[in-house]
# Entry
Amino acid sequence: MTKALISSYKQLLEKTKNITTLHSAAAILHWDMETMMPPKGIKMRSLQLAMLSRIGHKMSTAPEIGRLLQETINHPDYSSLDLVHKRNLYLIKKSYDEQTKLPEELVVETSKQQAITINMWKKAKATKDFAKFKPELEKLFELKKQAAEILMQVKETATPYDALVDIFEPKMSSEAISKVFKKLREGLVLLLKKCETAQKQPDTSILERPVPVEPQQKIGKLLAEFIGYDVTSGESGGRIDETEHPFTTGYYDDVRITTHYYPHRFASSIFSILHEGGHAIYEQNLKPEWMFQPVGDACSMGFHESQSRFVENIIGRSHEFWTYFLPALKKLTGNVLSDVTVDDFVHAINHVQSSKIRVEADEVTYGLHVIIRFNLEQDLFADKISIDELPQVWNKNYNKYLGVTIKDDSEGVMQDTHWASGLYGYFPSYALGNIYSGQLLACMDTQLQGWRDQIARGEFGTVKQWLNGNVHRHGNLYSPPELIKTITGKELSVKPFIDYLNNKYSQLYQF
Ligand code: ZN
# Structure
């Protein structure tokens, strides 16, 4: 590399570092808003966040970045750059091209409207009143539609909706997703029927036995320790706080998760900690030398979900894990679970049943919840349905796909925060995460014999190392379709996930 090329490249990375630092400050303000902020703080907080988003947009669209990109990409020695340099330049250029096409007013207006819509969503959800929520949702949807139409031109996607999907799952089109979701749906519906009609059904009442918050907090810390997510030592880079809806935020050395402790549903915090912990260990095990570089981010939301669901479901809901962990759980919960066997417990936490709420859904029905949302989003952006018709279409689809009757919009169309937050195109990532996790499992099974015995002995280290080496350390070096191919040697495929489910549930339900 010549001196001039190195200098321009370094200047670009310096600018990226500043932008990343600013975004991390906004993320901490968001975290504080959900965990610590007193209710009255909302006014000041929305001003602070709007200001940071304005500054961030200015920094990301500075003409200086455009000039430096030209200097590096058009440099005669560009071809001498290695894969990491080229990927960084590609990602910086992609972000710059997209951000510069979005008018600053649209960005700021969207940020403001998001805060208003979320606030209204909370109120409307509590009073089961979609009519109250609808006008704000319509405003935000129109803003997102404008952005999607602009981004479609820059990203050269087939539809505006595809441009939004690309934000969370780059290089993945809604056409490709529709294809895999069709197969996913067929597999899930078949399996759901088998589970629901099986003779052997679990006793889920054991999961309603009372466990106070304090022992649940201790259990949570033990789980974090098991997966190697340090929240207790003097050198820790994580912490667990309480929020209504669990989430993960942060990057490398400061990654925080949240959970919710329900005294009559102790399993809820167990699985949300394992889930968010899966996200956390992904962020904490990205390549340290790539910190602050675009290549040092996680690959995609779908890959993030593959990691959280791997830890939550493939490990956390396995017979092996509970062989190890049930004695500790019994000890920490007093006499509450003393009569429960591993078999009974594992069946109860893997109960398959059609339900109304996505976040409480089991592994089998979860994908169906996602497919409903994906289809609705496509129809919304193609003007096939309007926001006004959403509740009605939602209820109809829940009946058709899951056989449940939605009684009010709080348990229906208003259950998730995504649309209120303007996160259209995000939902497919959840089901893609499941599909990736199935492919990763199939690959790990061939490469890491004996891993199940290790889990039963309480050792997660080898599995974690495998995930570190095969997923986490690649950061954002590849797009999701490239990454799954690099790791497994295969294209995106639903089969390993469906095979995993069939194998697991035929044993549990004995069909
Ligand atoms: Zn997640």
User: Anything to note?
Assistant: The CA atoms of residues 134 and 388 lie 7 Å apart. The first strand starts at residue 238 and ends at 242. The longest helix spans residues 3-35.
